[in-house]
Recover the amino acids of this structure.
């Protein structure tokens, strides 16, 4: 698929800057094609791993049903949102990842994804604590992967570095 170019190219973030935002942020909003064509967007914690984004989920529900019907999704992260009322503007920086979702079925791959997420949110905890938590919830745990096909990022003019 050919993704449309950004209209305001000067404010576009580079692929490296987009990845930096994804590394820095701690949550975002996953958007999928929900019931009866209505968009379904849900806030989620995540971990970036190369060209994929990892999420955890319950095994059943609106999100899982939507992914089964149509794997195409987007995931939006807001890195900065600084409102400047006197200027009638917001200094913002955000990234959208586009790609295809899949449920991770293989147990070894599922455990590795869960451990990745655990290390992201509990980097100072002992590895055994993460393993015990995974074991405790294993029977109901579902791990999801968004394979990134396209990244798009934009920032307010006010956050852009000065021109050379």
């Amino acid at each position: 698929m050919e993704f449309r170019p950004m209209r305001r190219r000067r404010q576009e973030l580079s692929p490296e800057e987009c990845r930096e935002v994804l590394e820095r942020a701690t949550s975002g909003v996953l958007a999928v094609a929900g019931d009866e064509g209505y968009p379904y967007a849900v806030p989620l914690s995540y971990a970036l791993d190369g060209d994929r984004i990892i999420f955890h989920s319950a095994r059943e529900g609106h999100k899982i049903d939507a992914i089964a019907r149509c794997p195409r999704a987007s995931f939006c992260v807001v890195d900065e949102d600084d409102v400047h009322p006197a200027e009638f503007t917001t200094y913002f920086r955000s990234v959208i990842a586009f790609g295809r979702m899949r449920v991770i079925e293989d147990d070894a791959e599922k455990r590795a994804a869960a451990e990745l997420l655990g290390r992201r949110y509990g980097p100072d905890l002992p590895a055994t604590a993460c393993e015990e938590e995974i074991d405790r919830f294993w029977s109901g745990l579902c791990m999801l992967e968004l394979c990134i096909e396209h990244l798009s990022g934009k920032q307010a003019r006010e956050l852009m570095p000065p021109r050379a």
